[in-house]
Amino acid sequence: MTQPPAAAPLTPCTSLVRPRITELRLSAFAGHRRAALPLGPLTLLAGPSGCGKSSALRACEALARLGGGAALGEAFPDPVACVPERARPDAQQRRGFRIGCTADGPAGPVRLDVAVQAEPHLRVVGERLTAGGTGPAGDRPCATPGKRSVQAAWHTAGPTPVTRGPLPDDRLGTALLPLRVAGRTSGQRRVLAAAEQMVVALRSAFACDPDPGRMRGPVPAGSARLLRHCGNLAGVLLRTHAECGHRHTQFVAAVRAGCAGPVADVLAELPADGTVRAVLDRGDGIRTELGRLGEGELRYVALALVLLTGPGVLDLDPAGEVPAALQTLTVLADGLDRSLDPGQRSELLRLAARMCERGHIRLVGAVSDASWAAGTDGVTVVHLKP
Fold first, then answer.
1. Which residues pair with 277 in a beta bridge?
2. What is the per-residue pLDDT across 60-92, written as a single tens digit (0 to 9) for each?
3. Is 183 helix (H, G, I), strand (E, B) or coil?
4. Which class for 105: exposed (0-12), middle (13-18), buried (19 or more C-beta within 10 A)?
C-alpha cells in the first residue's frame, strides 16, 4: 500500500474564528486516568513533582505531531512510557493508552479521541472524531491483529450515509480525511470542516524548554528558526532584528524589564570566525555577552523571544495552506518558572497575558506552584495531584 503524504492538504477556513484546543483528555496516559484538563488562552498546569505536568505537555506535543501527519513512532518515541504503570496486558499481551482533545472553532466543538497500542506493536487501534455533539464525523474501529491498515468510516449523510475506506494504522486518520472525502455533499463538507479544524488547531504547537547551557556560546551563522532548547537564540536574533523593528523594540523592552542592569538594545554580533553571538548593549559603550547572564536571565530572554515571535521564526510545522491570521500558535513550556526570580516571573506572565489576549498565541506552562499568578486576568490554573 502506498504511504500517504506527511500531511493532508487543507481548505482555508472562511471564518475569522481561529481553531484552538480547549481541552486535553488523558483517559489512560502515563500517570493520568480519566483526566480532562481545560486549556484557556494562558494555562498553568500546577502541582508537585510527579503529578503529571510534563506528561500532559508531552501528550499535547504528540497530538500536534500526529495532526501534522507524523507517524506514531515520531510522536511517541518511547510509547511504553505512556502506558499507565498498572495497566495489565490482555490475552494477546497488548497494552496501550488513550488520549484526546477538543478543538473549538468555526465548526463548533470538535472532539478527537485516540486509542494507541504500545505493545507488542505500536499502532492506532481506535480513533473517533465527533463534531458539534451530533455524533461521529469519522470513526476508526478497533484494528484487527496482524493487519497494518484498518477500515474506517466517515458519516456523511445523504444518499450514502456512511463511507468506508482503509487507513494506515501508524497515522492519525483525521489528518488524512481531506485526501479521502470529496467534499461534494453537505455531509462530506461537514466531515471535512471538522477534520480541518482539528488539524489546524493541533499543528501550530511549539514545545519550548530553554537550556541556558546551550545558549552561552556563539552559534553558526544561518540559524534562522528557534529550536526548542533555544541554544541557537543568537542566530535567530540576527534574523528577527532585521525583519521587524517594532517586534524587536518590544523584545528589548521585555529584556530590560527582566534582566539586571541597563539594557539599551539586544544585538547579534558576527565575529570573524563566521559564528554569531548575542550581546546586551548597556548604552554606555559596554556590551555584555549573553553567556555572562545567569540561568534565570537566559531562560527569561528565550521565553520572551518565543512569545514575541511566531510560526515563521520557531522550529515547527504549521498549516502552511491556511493563512497565518486564521491560525493560533500554542507554546508548550515545561518548567515555565524554572530559575526565574519573582520579578522575572511576574514580567513574563504579564507579557504572556498581553500576547495571549490578542488571540494569535496560546500558552500552556508547567509550574510547581501557581500562587504567584493569582489575580492575573486571563490565566487558567489547572491543579494536578500525584
1. 269
2. 999 999 999 999 999 999 999 999 998 999 988
3. coil
4. buried
Angle, helices 342-357/245-258, rounded to nearest 10 degrees: 150
CATH for the stretch 1-204+316-386: 3.40.50
Using 50, 70 and 90 to split pLDDT, how confident is the model at 15?
very low
- Distance between CA atoms of 357 and 34, rounded to whole angstroms? 30
| Residue that is written with C-alpha cell 463534531 in the block | 131
Q: For residue 187, report the phi and psi dihedrals to the nearest 5 degrees.
A: -65, -40
Q: Name the pTM for this structure.
A: 0.88
pLDDT tens column, 221-253? 877 799 999 999 999 998 888 888 899 999 999
- Interior/surface letters 31-69, b for 16+ CB within 10 angstroms, e for the rest: bbeebebebbbbbbbbbeeebbbbbbbbbbbbbbbbbbb
Tell me the three cell numbers of residue 266.
539586544
Span 81-107, average pLDDT: 94
Domains of the chain by residue range = 1-204+316-386, 211-315
Distance, CA of 109 to CA of 68 (rounded, Å): 20
